[in-house]
Amino acid sequence: MVYPIYTELTQCRDCYKCVRSCPVKAIQVKDGSAVVIKDRCVFCGHCVDVCPNHAKKVRDDIARVQMFLRGGKRVLCSIAPSYAAEFAGQGDAVLAALMRLGFSGVSETAIGAALVSASVDLYAKRNGGVCPWISTACPSVVELVRKYYPQLVGNLSHVPSPLQCHCAYLRELYGEDIGIVFVGPCIAKKVEADTTPGFPDFALTFGELRQWLEREGVFLDEMVDGIEAGKISVPDFVPAPAGKTTLYPVEGGMIASLMWGEDAFQDHAVAISGVDQVIDVLDELPRQEVRGEGGTLEMDVYNDFLELLNCEGGCVNGPGASKGRSPAAKKSLSARYTKTRITAQADKLFVPPAQFLDKLLDKGYDLLVRGDRRSEYPPTGFLPAELKAKFSDAQIDQALKDLGKVSKADELNCGGCGYNTCRDMAVAYLEGMAEPEMCVTKMRKEAQSKIDVLLRTIPMGVVMVDEDLKIVDCNVGFLHLFGDIDYSIESEIINLISGLPLERFVPFYEQFREQFHTSKPGQYRLHYQDKFLRVTFFVVEKQRLVGAIFEDITSPTVRRETVVKKAEDVIQKSLETVQQIASLLGENAAETEIMLNSLIDAFKVPGTDSEDGFLPDEQQDLT
Amino acid sequence: MEKVTVELCMGSSCFARGNSQALANLENYISENNLEDRVDLVGHLCLGACSKGPNIKVGDVSYSGVDPNCVVDLLVEALNKAATK
Q1: Which of A282, A283, B46, B83 could be disulfide-bonded to B11 (CB atoms 3.0-4.6 Å)?
Q2: Looking at chain B, which residue has its C-alpha nearest residue A2?
Q3: How sure is the predictor about A378, in pLDDT bands with cuts at 50, 70 and 90?
Q4: Same domain for A446 and A463?
């Protein structure tokens, strides 16, 4: 099945930008194409954001939700509070539009946040004023902890995420048979829909919602007008509007809604956003068991409640939100929205029921387990053992050699391949996650040495020039032909030549200029000084670099002329012979003819013209 | 536990309009969750309902115009039903 983030292979064109941006290096490069490995992925969405070819896709769940709505269930929309920043000025229109799409009602995910905040406060009150948990509001942080810091799973909040709590609460209010679809700025929320089906049933991004509205022909501007004209009604939030937890999508917003939020110094609660900083925090955090419930370690900071959000600045800047509004604007919009809310509608706000809080703290994640509901996808729990392979130093050194890093000095740690260090890259190469071709230094070095060797060993003159007809590169053969230098040329001199104008070496340099404009580079024969040369032009880079190969064909030319001469001699000789034979034959024939004629005369019978009758026999020898 | 039979129309119209992807999605899901002994996949040549395609039948229920992204949901629903029977 398709996971929340996947790769469109045909669109990927090896730039490694995704590898570079991936905080956990969950991207495998195979045959030049980058593929997200789901078992390693924390679904932060960075790769989706940075991919210049849009080859990283977010699973489109619109069709699934549409089918779900057609199923006839009562389906509620759990809308993330960041909608205030996403649809500034169109907030009411979005709510009305959701009803038009077929939802039975709209509820705020911030209700779930209110439940979580109240639970954390309650827990802290019961535990000496501290609650040393990692917030589970960010599903990407939860994935990060599960896959890469399994020892810290015990540190995760004992109550589920705000969205999951929201769903559990709605189901308690309206019955098990309802459906819940989340709409928000987050890609990773799709994982919650996958791993705890029903909590929620589906998760859409704001981007998907916009797409869906467009497809259905629902325009928010028109909705705004309709609402102002009183033609379209705006649904009230069910069961009630949430309070200050609508600030959750901004870094620090969660803590602001907790009991520590009232204190300007906020001791015992720390908000950190941005995945790199989150990783730094997790790297240092001791296990819950080491610390013990309530916290007793000397370093008190570990007893703090940690609000960790993988998106910098909080959910408002999530990958499922639209671009084009600054983080400052989004933060400000969220803050104003929350402030208007708690001042204007103070009497209507949602108050977490005490008995449900007890249930949350008591049962925690067990609230989400349903015997009758199959998990739709294998829960993306821990990193599979085969992905945690360890390699010996010898193996890594060998891998570094394969990558062309023979000595420590070769390890540039440039990050061009996407990995921070050459060593990281070598490990990824051993794991089959990376290919040697990803190392730009290696490839460039290889290409350079290939061309160097080729130029040095080829028994011809080679020169390459740029569009200003300045020499970019040439070889010794070229200098032998045109440089009037007989002694063997050291390679250093060649380096001095690059940059010099071609006309200083060849008189026919204008011929090169034409090559920049012809579609097909040609081959010519050239008589230069006392030599015959075959010139083959070639284009290195269109309109930028043209080269020529000069092949000395002087000696073969001379040899050919000799052959032609000899052949002509042979023809002449044989002609003479034939003529001699012919004349002898003629003489012979004439002599024979004379002799035969005399014979004929000798045997001739006289008087052949006489009449019939007896004739006298002149040769009377009948004795 | 009852087996669930999923019948897919593999006629050229349904195949081209999404059932090839639907089949791939189902096969992936079944193998990832080791459901080989709970699901039967059956392919058909054209069922004569091309205009309404892609067509698919899960258990006793026929569906038309199915988006390939949805087939796993249909299967999961049928499996849940079969499990509670």
Answers
A1: B46
A2: B25
A3: very low
A4: no
Q: DSSP E strands: which ranges in A37-108? A: 56-58, 75-79, 105-108
Any B CB within 8 A of A68 CB: yes
Judge if ipTM > 0.90. Answer: no
The per-residue pLDDT for A607 is: 61
Contact between A1 and B25 using a beta-carbon 8 Å cutoff: yes
Query: pLDDT, tens digit, for every residue of A83-131?
Result: 999 998 899 999 999 999 999 999 999 999 999 999 999 999 988 888 8
Is residue B14 included in any domain, yes or no? no
Residues A478 and A520 in one domain: yes
Residue ranges with strand state E in chain B = 4-9, 39-44, 56-58, 61-63
pLDDT, mean of residues A318-343: 91
Measured CA to CA, the distance from residue B78 to residue B61 in angstroms comes to 9
Q: Pick the range with the lowest mean pLDDT from A14-18, A605-609, B8-12.
A: A605-609
> Which chain A residue is nearest to residue B24, measuring alpha carbons?
A1
Could you tell me if A117 and A138 lie in one domain?
yes
| Burial (CB count within 10 angstroms: exposed 0-12, middle 13-18, buried 19+), residue A407 | exposed
Q: Which pLDDT does position A616 carry in this prediction? A: 66
Dist CA A253 CA A249 (whole Å): 7
The residue segments making up the domain with residue A47 are 1-55
How close is the nearest chain A Cα to the Cα of B53, in Å? 15
Say how many domains are in chain A. 4
Q: Is the pLDDT of residue A293 over 60?
A: no
Residues of B in Cβ contact (< 8 Å) with A373:
80
Q: Is residue B85 domain-resident?
A: yes
Provide the 8-state DSSP code for A1: -
Token readout for A522 is 């040609």
> Nearest residue of B to residue A201 by CA position?
B73
pTM of the predicted structure, to 2 decimals: 0.78
User: Are residues A290 and A163 located together in one domain of the fold?
Assistant: yes
Residue among A64, A67, A372 whose CB faces B80 most closely: A372
Q: Which domain holds residue B78?
A: 43-85
pLDDT at A187: 94
Lowest mean pLDDT among A5-14, A137-146, A227-236, A409-418: A5-14
Query: By the CB < 8 Å criterion, does B10 face chain A?
Result: no
Q: How many CB atoms lie within 10 A of CB A31?
A: 9
